[in-house]
From TrEMBL:
It comes from the Bacteria. Gene3D superfamilies: 3.40.50.2300. Keywords: Activator, Cytoplasm, DNA-binding, Phosphoprotein, Transcription, Transcription regulation, Two-component regulatory system. GO terms for cellular component: cytoplasm. SMART domains: REC (SM00448). This is Transcriptional regulatory protein. The modification 4-aspartylphosphate is found at residue 58. It holds the Pfam family Response_reg. It comes from Brevibacillus nitrificans. Residues 7-123 form the Response regulatory domain. InterPro entries: 2C-system_Tx_regulators, CheY-like_superfamily, Sig_transdc_resp-reg_cit/mal, Sig_transdc_resp-reg_receiver. GO terms for molecular function: DNA binding; DNA-binding transcription factor activity; phosphorelay response regulator activity.
Amino acid sequence: MSDQPITVMIVEDDEVAAKIYEQFTLKLEGFQIIATATTGKQALDMLHVVTPDMLLLDIFLPDMNGIDLLREVRKHFRGIDVIMITAANDVETVREAIRGGAYSYIIKPIMIDKFMSTLAQYASTRSQLQQHTTMDQMAVDKLFTKASIAPAARTAENVTTLPKGIDKLTLKLIRDKMQVTAHSVNADDLAALAGMSHSTVRRYLEFLVSINEVTVETFYGTVGRPERKYRWAGA
């Protein structure tokens, strides 16, 4: 890997999700977060001031579709790579992301190991492209065929160190509340039950999703943002 860090801009209107991406990106050696945007327009304005190596890009933005933003990036900032992170799992959106030249596509709710292995694979690809002026067919094939073996799933048993922002006692309280909840709940429901803020509960729920203790489903209504509902995995 080059001595220069891989610079990253996060484009995500969900503050909790953006913080999670930032936290785990910085756990990988050689990455640096240089900006966070919450709208497409804000991202485009920032790109005229700073030029990251990579965007972590959501599709459901308040002012525009992330696919449209991807097209703008390809048109005006061709040197920037893009990893899509989104709840959109319809074939047409995936097809347009491929056509737009996205490096990878991660479907929410994200698994932290998947997120981190994708970034690590990107760093490896980037390093190989920087180290060579020519490549044979075998080397090219390796770049175009990303690793398909998933890392071992994170579970409660193999998580030995809690990430920054996750407190052991608070985590136990959230676990206890989820275990006695027989039905799916959203972050607001659990926040009221636990007597905590929405943002705190959401952060802990997403961590529990990442270690497979809680499952999550996304529901799309007729108006407003998609709703995420959480359920204890053993319920």
